[in-house]
Amino acid sequence: MTFKPTRRSVLQGMLAGSAAFAVMGAFPAFAQQKGGKLTVGLTYEIDTMNVYSTGFLGDAQAAVVEGLLAPDPHAKYVPVLATEVPTLENGGIVVSEGGKTMKITYKLRPGVKWHDGAPFTSADVKYTWEAVKDPAFIAESKDGSSEVESIDTPDDLTVVVNYNTILPTFASTLFTFGILPKHLLEGTDLNTSPYNETPVGTGPFKVTEFVRGQYVVTERFDDYWRKADNGDQLPYLDGIIFKMIPDTNTLITQLKSGEVQLVVQTPYNQAAQVEGIDGIEMIKGPLLSWQHLDFNFKRPSLADINVRKAIASAIDRSILIKAQGGFPEAIKSPVVPVFDFYAADTPETPYDVEAAKKLLDDAGYKPGGDGIREKDGERLSYTFMVQAGRADDELAQQVIIAQLKAIGIEATADNKTGVAYREARYKGGYDLIYGRWITSADPVYSVFWGTGGANNGQSYSNPALDAAFGKFENTLDPAARKEAAAEFQKILAEDLPTISLTTNVALIAKTKKLKNFVPNPTNMTNFINSSPWYLE
Amino acid sequence: MSFGFILRRLGGAIPLLLGISLILFTIIHLAPGGPLDMYTDNPAVSQEALDQIARAYGLDQPVPVQYFLWLKAMVVGDWGYSIRTGRPVLTEIALRLGPTLQLGGLALLVSLCVAIPLGVLSASRRGSALDNGLTLASFTGISVPVFWLALLLQLLFSVQLGWLPSAGYQSIGDGSFLDRLSHIVMPAAVLSLATIASWSRFIRSGMVDVLNQDYVRTAYAKGRGEPGVLLFHALRNAMIPAVTVIAVDFGTVISGAVITETVFAWPGIGRLFMESMDGRDYPMLMGLMMMGSVGIILANIVADLAYAALDPRIRYG
């Protein structure tokens, strides 16, 4: 994959793979073998082991540090250090009488120990909130910390979080990221703490060595709380080693020579090579990331639904998919199908060049001398932006330009990078823009297309859509949320402020000897489920 | 040559470094992108979080102010903090300097030991099949892309033969001398190949010039044998033009072998530079580039001193 999801972008999404929680029982007891070290190749440098500070994926961190909850492969939260996921039904969530605030009670798992042997208690949870919200702590993510008013810890195994608002996305933030050990960190400076090198967690593996630019070595934590259904003490592996290999060619060479056994991000263009390696198999894992083409509504012609519809009809997703090695998958909704919220009956605009031309003809856009259509003096000639330097995006851009040309619409590449790109994207410095977003397991879509949404550089505004988002994002009732989700998916598909094109997949190359491995929609969180993995 | 000369040269380097720092700082800030770009794909990172990080690193200040703050800190020996890792720039550089010096040092040593004999041999057999063969070999050596050669070596020695580890600085849990040696062989070979090729050309042309000189004829006339003439009369003078090139290459070793270190996952300065470029880590980049500049300036001073040592007629007052 050529895009580099930040830890936050994916962890935000944190679909922690708790597949194994569900899958564990499905494996026969005799099959698992204890022991063996797994060597993992990462193409990025691990900058810090502190889950709240890193700008990158948290692969290594996820094997070491645990949160109260974790999302499973279907974007559903399951308990980790908590004993159950708080809901309205089980009384874990209580909405105040005015309906403006809420109180969430977590019951903590008894008998959990930190890697240094100290007991894990409610004080650690409270400390985590205090440490993260501390303005002196430079964190990449403080999500969910400002919505917490106070935390009560009536006893060692009970945490009561008092929110100053209704936050249906509470599970995708703070305490799911990871809990910090109060007994080790209280009173220290988290920005410079040695914890950032060798974190102490409650996870199945403990960090024994972190050598910058080289590797992170983890070893089995013998007092890990979790047991397999057959009573085996987890984890099965003796340890996981994360090696940082920045060059993908070298990484593939290391797979060939057996120096690494698992690569969670094989570039699309190297997939064919990997498939030819003896003893290595390739798994396609879904990702909560999708590609889309968005319109700037400041252009009068783009504010015309007929033009947007024509463009949607003119795009042949199969070519886009081919251009990206055949790995992405076509979609019609920004809600990636792995979510429960995905509405299968969302209307679709099929690929149909003739229909597109007819739409434009009927709407009065007539081809000029050069074949480019125009109406009332406005030529359908657009600037088209992708993030410069992203080969996959630039390729897709060329495909789309050609497809638009076929219906008499001109698009000219105007690509930018860095701050310039960001500024253009958020302030609408484009006519058409192609890119990708990634969401959390508790996605919030109003930021993209809600009126005044933080990421709505398109100047798009639709009261019906705002209302659907409002329902979706301000209720804790799952049925009502699902209904609202179907509603906004339909509005998006019909009014087309965005054309959802393709999803991404993670190409995971792994040794055939590694068993119990379940891919997860987020690269990072493949490792949250590492305790049941074993090597044959 | 005197102690005063060295002091004067070092003193002269200060305004030079100041100028370099100003240019580097300007270029870095003119380049598109910034340290907060790693969050651009992520709608969930709030503007407040970005603002806080910007404030913490002074990125919210105007660029000239940022420069003067940086300069002030630099003068008192504070190189700032890496935006990517949050650790002091000096600590990060110190960690990576060792592997780079080992790799670069070995590559330079190998290059010297191979390039000098090749250059001398080539010049002394000028026009022969051997000379032509070496010429062809050096041009091949200069032209072969580093990453391609690296890949070939990795496939041969790591995948096919299984003799050497394909990448890394040491095996996990090992790190003995032999283990490190096995890791350094391929990157050092790749790194030295291009230098051998270019240095041997410089030495050859230097030798060709010198071999036409009267004193060389005189040495032969006095009955000195060829090895003696080449090594004791000619080589010393032939090295003078080559010294500049060699000195500059010594300097660049400190700034790291970017491609080689990336391909071989060598945890050195070159790779740190790549990572920092990638993350637009301004403090780290400034630290690395200033260190590289100092290295090149020092190498040039050493080259001047080497001239005088090689040719007593050259004197610096």
Automatic annotation (TrEMBL), chain B:
InterPro entries: BPD_transp_1_N, MetI-like, MetI-like_sf. It comes from the Bacteria. GO terms for cellular component: plasma membrane. One of its GO terms (molecular function) is dipeptide transmembrane transporter activity. Keywords: Cell membrane, Membrane, Transmembrane, Transmembrane helix, Transport. Residues 97-307 form the ABC transmembrane type-1 domain. The chain crosses the membrane at residues 12-31, 101-121, 133-157, 177-197, 242-266, 286-310. It is a multi-pass membrane protein. It is found in: Cell membrane. Its main location: membrane. Belongs to the binding-protein-dependent transport system permease family. This is ABC transporter permease. It comes from Paradevosia shaoguanensis.
